[in-house]
Amino acid sequence: MARTILFNKPFGVLSQFTDSSTAASPSPTLSAFIDLPGVYPAGRLDKDSEGLMVLTDDGRLQARLAEPRHKTAKTYWVQVEGLPEPAALEALAAGVELKDGPTRPARVRAIAEPAGLWPRDPPVRFRKTVPDSWLEITITEGRNRQVRRMTAAIGHPTLRLIRAAIGRWRLEGLAPGRWQEAPAVPPGRA
Question: Which positions fall inside the Pseudouridine synthase RsuA/RluA-like domain (predicted)?
Answer without folding.
Answer: 4-153
